[in-house]
């Protein structure tokens, strides 16, 4: 059977990085990333200029995890969030 392949992917870690499903507590760190115009030089439409835009996006990510068991991860090093990455059913 495939049961041994099934796992909770809300937290995945390696020796250097930790990937966590986002929580509402991630809103300030996520907004720091998404409001920075330098981060979005090559994709300016993805930039979030207000905290409200970021919170709305974050709520949709949390809903993805609740619905699908996969979604956007917060990337952390030494406990500090510094990026995001995605798994799952994007564009569903």
Task: Report what the structure shows.
By secondary structure, the chain is α+β, with helices and mostly antiparallel strands. It has a single domain, classed as Gcn5-related N-acetyltransferase (GNAT) (Aminopeptidase, 3-Layer(aba) Sandwich), CATH 3.40.630.30. The chain is built from two helices and four strands. It has a four-stranded antiparallel beta sheet. Helix 1 packs across helix 2. The longest helix is centred in the middle third of the chain and has 18 residues. It is globular, with a radius of gyration of 14 Å. It starts with 10 loop residues before the first strand and ends in a 6-residue tail after the last strand. The model has no long low-confidence stretch (mean pLDDT 86).
Distance between the termini: 28 Å
DSSP helix fraction:
25-40%
Total individual domains: 1
So, the CATH homologous superfamily? Gcn5-related N-acetyltransferase (GNAT)
CATH topology (fold) name: Aminopeptidase
Level-1 CATH class name: Alpha Beta
Q: Quick one: biggest sheet?
A: 4 strands, antiparallel
Amount of beta strand: 15-25%
Estimated radius of gyration:
14 Å
| Discrete helix count | 2
Q: How would you sum up the global shape?
A: globular
Q: Would you count the extended β strands for me? A: 4
CATH architecture: 3-Layer(aba) Sandwich
The order of strands across the largest sheet is 1-2-3-4
């Amino acid at each position: 059977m495939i049961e041994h392949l099934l796992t909770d992917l809300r937290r995945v870690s390696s020796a250097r990085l930790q990937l966590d499903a986002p929580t509402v507590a991630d809103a300030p760190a996520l907004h720091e990333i998404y409001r920075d115009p330098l981060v979005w030089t090559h994709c300016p439409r993805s930039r979030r200029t207000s905290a409200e835009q970021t919170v709305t996006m974050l709520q949709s990510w949390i809903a993805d995890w609740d619905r699908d068991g996969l979604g956007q991860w917060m990337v952390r090093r030494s406990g500090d969030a510094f990026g995001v990455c995605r798994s799952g059913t994007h564009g569903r």
